[in-house]
């Protein structure tokens, strides 16, 4: 078989099936909505659920229980990747993406209607777990489909740039979700100015608004996605009879090395992101005069600081695409991962320097997040041929969520408590996970020149 580079240069590139503006909007708006829904829960997991969905007791225990439910969604994500991946590789990207978006929207909306622990006892957290699993199931099918819409419609030499559009949905969704919580909290100020708890009105009904608002965003997303047509790559594979009856079996039989590499490529990205968002919100707003102290910022102040950091996440997500197209995905990510390792070792100096240090910590952390997350929109799909691309990239992306995102806030909180409030071991944990990602990158090969329309292509990413 000829090399992937020669295969990609010997044939003229096919014209994209969808206009550029439609591709950008469809890939961006869907992931924005999905990540919005996910972050609404993540914020509520720190701010609301420990108070409303668990019995009164130790606040740290309640927070850990809330994070455990947060992690349940990550376990459901690979299942969603398998189911939606099978549908996407058999029947096309468009209908599958619509199904994922509807599943996420309905689950998020229903969370906004749940009774609390005081109303129905342990039935409340049980319902929360079920709907949280549904969220994870939906997100498991969303990301890879959105990435394929972007990259399978990308012009030649710009796959990583187009692959950043669905990635940009993460910072935008975060800003919208937390911004809405911030507005509601400001309109319903705390009953006690000296308390870090939200107001009684916020805990009673205000927290429900962001969940219920998701239905509006889903309607907009559906309108955009229903206007898509299938990509040239998928249509070509379908016409040539190269679609696989059982994508899951095929990807495990023929592409298991790519699955392993892709999972570890994403590990540092997941750990970094969920430490910088979910864990940091709990750490940043925890009082300083308790047995396991935090930074002592008010909720409003720290969320504004987070949003400021996430702006850099968005900026560097966009910048990472052209860099990865120019220098290659592997080289770009090796340098970024080295930066994450160093960043994890510097948590204590950053967080011991007062407000300037904390703000610098957020900016550096989220800038690194953008640089590592952006190229993944192209890199993971490039590991797999068209006929198993949805399944393969989705499984790698979402299995990594179990190893990274599902446990990162939980482990971070446990290490923070074990260290008596010091973030030192949390940073070490990040660095160790980044070392595993670095090893995976070192043993892999570059993918930017693979022939993306070849349904039978064996990836060049494995030694």
TrEMBL record:
<feature type="domain" description="Major facilitator superfamily (MFS) profile">
    <location>
        <begin position="23"/>
        <end position="448"/>
    </location>
</feature>
<comment type="similarity">
    <text>Belongs to the major facilitator superfamily. Metabolite:H+ Symporter (MHS) family (TC 2.A.1.6) family.</text>
</comment>
<protein>
    <recommendedName>
        <fullName>Putative proline/betaine transporter</fullName>
    </recommendedName>
</protein>
<dbReference type="InterPro" id="IPR011701">
    <property type="entry name" value="MFS"/>
</dbReference>
<keyword id="KW-0769">Symport</keyword>
<dbReference type="InterPro" id="IPR005829">
    <property type="entry name" value="Sugar_transporter_CS"/>
</dbReference>
<feature type="transmembrane region" description="Helical">
    <location>
        <begin position="297"/>
        <end position="320"/>
    </location>
</feature>
<feature type="transmembrane region" description="Helical">
    <location>
        <begin position="168"/>
        <end position="187"/>
    </location>
</feature>
<feature type="transmembrane region" description="Helical">
    <location>
        <begin position="332"/>
        <end position="352"/>
    </location>
</feature>
<feature type="transmembrane region" description="Helical">
    <location>
        <begin position="395"/>
        <end position="418"/>
    </location>
</feature>
<keyword id="KW-1133">Transmembrane helix</keyword>
<dbReference type="InterPro" id="IPR020846">
    <property type="entry name" value="MFS_dom"/>
</dbReference>
<comment type="function">
    <text>May be a proton symporter involved in the uptake of osmolytes such as proline and glycine betaine.</text>
</comment>
<feature type="transmembrane region" description="Helical">
    <location>
        <begin position="62"/>
        <end position="84"/>
    </location>
</feature>
<dbReference type="GO" id="GO:0005886">
    <property type="term" value="C:plasma membrane"/>
</dbReference>
<feature type="transmembrane region" description="Helical">
    <location>
        <begin position="96"/>
        <end position="114"/>
    </location>
</feature>
<keyword id="KW-0812">Transmembrane</keyword>
<feature type="transmembrane region" description="Helical">
    <location>
        <begin position="259"/>
        <end position="277"/>
    </location>
</feature>
<dbReference type="GO" id="GO:0015293">
    <property type="term" value="F:symporter activity"/>
</dbReference>
<keyword id="KW-1003">Cell membrane</keyword>
<dbReference type="InterPro" id="IPR036259">
    <property type="entry name" value="MFS_trans_sf"/>
</dbReference>
<keyword id="KW-0813">Transport</keyword>
<dbReference type="Pfam" id="PF07690">
    <property type="entry name" value="MFS_1"/>
</dbReference>
<feature type="transmembrane region" description="Helical">
    <location>
        <begin position="424"/>
        <end position="443"/>
    </location>
</feature>
<feature type="transmembrane region" description="Helical">
    <location>
        <begin position="358"/>
        <end position="383"/>
    </location>
</feature>
<keyword id="KW-0472">Membrane</keyword>
<feature type="transmembrane region" description="Helical">
    <location>
        <begin position="207"/>
        <end position="226"/>
    </location>
</feature>
